[in-house]
Amino acid sequence: MKTKYLLILALALSASCGKERTVGREGIPMQVDAILADDTKADVTAADVKSFYLQVSCEDDTYSYFTRVTLGTDGAWHPDKPMYWKNETTPVTYSAVFFSGHAFTAAEFANGIDFNFTDDVLMAAPVTVKFTETTGGQLDIVLKHALVKLRLEFTLGEKFFDSGIGLAGSPVTLPTLADVPVFSHFTPASGEFTPDTGYMVPLLLPFVSYTPGTAGSKAAKAVYESSVLPGTYAPGTLTLTFKIGSGEYTWTNNKTITFVSGEVVTLPVSVMTPFV
């Protein structure tokens, strides 16, 4: 299950753009527009994005641009350097990245940086397009959170209510994923992630909300969630442990699970009877 919330960032780059024989002087404007796909309930929102880094490469390798794009006092977005279309038919590939407080270099954009599951990086995966495939030469950038939000939704059966368990607050404690990577190498130019599987640690998921059972609807619901790194888990490689009272429970995936950047992954966990 994933949830999509789009926060529009109106970006208008005032940059001239030349045809093949007038690159860098005059010609077709290279406009930029972006949206933030705010899927992970992470800390960074559209209001926090005052600048980001953009790379545009011509597919015939005749030129490329790497520039910071900054929000001006006029409400428009301005690149540190102008960018140009070569012509109407030669494709360009573009990608973008935002990491609060980090000034990317061209080398970092191309070769990547290391970050962990608490670093709220925004990214726009590479897109290839011709001028004729755009609206007036506009590059449409979709920024999304590089991290994934993992949401655990516990449902406690009626017997918990009948036993007086969880009437005042969530009885679920220590929901922990065993051995997950907390560091990854991310390459903005390609949008690729390489988790560091040599350093795996247990991850405790924080409490979010609890809805106790009632006389009319005895089932209770508890929600816990955390940011995690993108990755794929083969059957039997993702394990969740938690406690309810004196009972200890274990869940292991029986099918492949893939955590995709910018998405919310919901794992429903049903516990029907108290531990005896």
Which stretches are poorly predicted, pLDDT < 50 over at least 5 residues?
1-26
Query: Taking all residues together, what is the mean pLDDT?
Result: 82
CATH architecture designation of the largest domain: Sandwich
- The total count of helices amounts to 2
Strand order of the largest sheet: 1-2-9-8-6-3-4-5
What is the strand content?
Answer: over 45%
Helix content, binned percent:
under 10%
The count of β-strands is: 21
Oligomer: single chain
Cα distance spanning the termini: 33 Å
CATH class of the largest domain: Mainly Beta
- What overall geometry do the principal axes of the alpha carbons give? elongated
What name does CATH use for the topology of the largest domain?
Immunoglobulin-like
Which structural class do you get from the secondary structure elements?
Answer: mainly beta
> In this structure, how is the largest beta sheet organized?
8 strands, mixed
Rg over C-alpha atoms, rounded to the nearest angstrom: 23 Å
**What are the secondary-structure elements, in order, as H or E?**
EEEEEEHEEEEHEEEEEEEEEEE
User: Total domains, how many?
Assistant: 2
